[in-house]
Each structure stands twice: as structure tokens, then as C-alpha cells.
Write a structure and sequence with these properties.
Chain lengths: 21, 145
């Protein structure tokens, strides 16, 4: 079968640390 | 102070220095064991560092935080596909969870279920989704569509 792109990886995000610094 | 640690953590994240980010997240957690931002940063940094085992053990140490999506993703990367689907069942269905579900179903060879999800995702404007859609059509023997 053809290879599928791992698009879910792009939704693994760091939280915003804006108001923690 | 913890603000300095978060500034350092943020710097490592911006530079994609994921192992360093894990170290600093651990420093935060040694001061503030339940800090959800630090735990999330640690789990994401481990995933971005391709360390699914450590990411999963970190997730399993923190049952108070809902890491079902990250857990499902790690299990998918480890090819533990049934467990990955189980973890997704804890979550509300949205375009992100459906996207991961479609990738898992594809690997399981469940092409009809996979293509059903792609149909539903058409309107969600996910970049490059059409590449996976075409792969699914070909795998399902519907390449002429
Ligand atoms: K895949």
C-alpha cells in the first residue's frame, strides 16, 4: 500500500509558555 | 525562580533542542511536581525527540492530566494499533482525533472506515490531506476515482 503522511504529528504542539516566563 | 526555568524551556523549544527541553521540564517538575505546562512540554519534547517509550511512561505517571491524544499518537508510532484506537475513544471526535484515527485505520487495513473519515475531514482544510486520501483510494482498490 502507498505510504501515508503522518499529518497527525503536526498537531502535537507545545503549550504556550507566554505567561509563565 | 520558575519563570527563568520556563524562559530556558521556551528557548530550547524554539531551537528544537528537545533533550535539553526535557531536562529543564524535569527541573520545573522537581520544584512543582504537578505543573501541567511542564508535564505537557516534557511529553511533547519526548515525542519530538522520537522517544515514545519515555513519553508513554511520563504520561502513565500523570493520570491527573488527560493525555489521551498524545498517548494514542505514541501507541500509533509503536504500531500498537488497537491500544491507540482505545485511547482515542476517550476523546471527543474532532478533526485532529479523526485525522489520527484515519492513519491508524489505514495501518490496520480498515480502508472503508478510513475513507469514511476522510470524507468527513474534507471540509476541515488539513494541509496535504488529499495525499492520504489518494493513498487510501489506491489501497482500497479505488485508484481510478
Ligand atoms: K500510516
Amino acid at each position: 500500500n502507498p505510504i501515508v503522511l503522518d499529518l497527525a504529528y503536526n498537531f502535537i504542539d507545545f503549550p504556550s509558555l507566554e505567561n509563565r516566563m | 525562580p520558575i519563570e527563568d526555568l520556563f524562559a530556558s524551556l521556551n528557548k530550547h523549544i524554539q531551537r528544537s533542542e528537545f533533550q535539553q527541553a526535557v531536562k529543564v521540564a524535569d527541573q520545573v517538575l522537581s520544584i512543582a511536581p504537578g505543573d501541567e505546562d511542564a508535564i505537557r512540554c516534557k511529553v511533547v519534547a519526548l515525542i519530538k525527540d522520537d522517544n515514545m517509550n519515555e513519553a508513554l511512561s511520563t504520561i502513565n505517571q500523570k493520570p491527573s492530566v488527560d493525555f489521551s491524544f498524545f498517548k494514542a499518537y505514541c501507541l500509533y508510532r509503536q504500531n500498537k494499533l488497537d491500544e491507540a484506537l482505545d485511547s482515542l475513544k476517550n476523546l471527543e471526535r474532532n478533526s485532529t482525533t479523526m485525522l489520527l484515527e484515519s492513519q491508524i485505520l489505514y495501518r490496520c487495513g480498515k480502508m472503508d472506515a478510513c475513507m469514511d473519515i476522510y470524507q468527513k475531514l474534507q471540509k476541515s482544510k488539513i494541509d496535504s490531506l488529499e495525499i492520504n486520501y489518494v493513498a487510501g483510494l489506491v489501497a482500497a482498490g479505488r485508484g481510478s476515482e
